[in-house]
Design goal:
Elements (H helix, E strand, L loop, with lengths): L2 H13 L2 H8 L3 H15 L4 E3 L4 E3 L1 H24 L5 E6 L4 H14 L4 E6 L2 H10 L4 E5 L7 E10 L1 E4 L10 E2 L1 H4 L3 E3 L7 H11 L7 E2 L9 H7 L4 E4 L8 E5 L5 E9 L6 H12 L1
Parallel strand pairs: 3-4, 3-5, 8-12, 9-10, 9-11
Antiparallel strand pairs: 1-2, 5-13, 6-13, 7-11, 7-12
Helix pairs in contact: 1-2, 1-3, 1-4, 2-3, 5-10
GO molecular function, one term: DNA-binding transcription factor activity
Organism: Nocardia asteroides NBRC 15531
Family: Belongs to the LysR transcriptional regulatory family.
Length: about 280
């Protein structure tokens, strides 16, 4: 049993998805599956029941999880006790912010060579909690939050992308209207997982005589490519980034835009490294 296997195990427990856990740990899905299988063999117990649509923890997992977290916390404490490097800044985000964040981290490190800046992958709510509890110095989110003791700075605004499969009835068009899209099922994660996205879509359709036709919810990790291939008459909305295997359409009557913000404690701007990092994120 290795500490990295416990870290992968905790990631799968928290994400309830091997693909999301792999993204969070910066490894391939096959690699994380292999390491979990090794851990199961070492422990002589099945840790997850795997189906085509879900990852379900077993009773053994529920007993192991608190112990695994204690082990990883102890490892962090040991490293902190012997660390001789300079100040440490932790930025909580998800993989969709990686490219812009890593450029900003490089700029901050160039300005503060002694600083250690860590990029931490966490789900939305855990990012907010990590900043509030002092585990992280700042977090990147889409939208905003209103929580005592925390400040929010808007960094940039993203244009959302309309995506369809090559078999969709609208595939031959370069531009469409919201009314064109209305009859076709819209695939989004559950509203409780993506409140801002659902609110944005409903607001866009508010002035039209027709509204969106919501299809069945898709997984929160937004594995849209496979879902659209399975339901070629559907469409979805993606954040900026690669859309391999899909076609994108331009809306002529509406721009779907969403703000990206930094969440930080109210006194965080007193730290010059945080200032440099935020300025670099603003510049993009």
């Amino acid at each position: 049993m290795e500490l990295r296997q416990l870290a992968y195990f905790v990631a799968v427990c928290e994400e309830l998805s091997f693909s999301r856990a792999a993204n969070r740990c910066f490894i391939s899905q096959s690699a994380i599956s292999h390491q979990i299988a090794r851990l199961e063999r070492d422990l002589g117990a099945q840790l997850f029941e795997r189906t085509t649509r879900a990852v379900v923890p077993t009773d053994a997992t529920l007993r192991l999880l608190p112990l695994a977290k204690q082990m990883l916390s102890l490892e962090s404490a040991i490293r902190a006790a012997v660390r001789t490097t300079g100040p440490r800044i932790r930025l909580a985000a998800n993989m969709s912010f990686a490219a812009r964040s890593l450029s900003a981290i490089a700029a901050a490190r160039a300005a503060h060579p002694d600083a250690e800046i860590e990029y931490v992958i966490k789900p939305f709510r855990q990012r907010i909690t990590a900043v509030a509890d002092g585990d992280c110095d700042l977090a990147l989110i889409r939208g905003s939050v209103d929580q005592p003791g925390l400040a929010v700075e808007q960094l940039w605004v993203e244009d959302l992308v309309i995506a369809i499969s090559s078999s969709h009835p609208l595939a031959g068009k370069d531009v469409v209207t919201l009314a064109d899209l209305s009859p076709y099922p819209l695939l989004l994660p559950p509203e409780q997982e993506q409140v801002l996205l659902h609110t944005l879509i409903r607001s866009a359709f508010a002035d039209l005589p027709v509204g969106p036709t919501f299809g069945p919810p898709i997984p929160p990790d937004h594995t849209a490519t496979m879902e659209l291939l399975n339901r070629p008459e559907s469409w979805t909305v993606l954040y900026e980034g690669p859309t391999r295997g899909l076609l994108t359409l331009d809306l002529v009557d509406h721009r779907l835009r969403i703000p990206v913000s930094a969440v930080l404690r109210e006194d965080a701007r007193e730290n010059p490294i945080v200032n440099t990092l935020l300025d670099a994120l603003h510049r993009g």
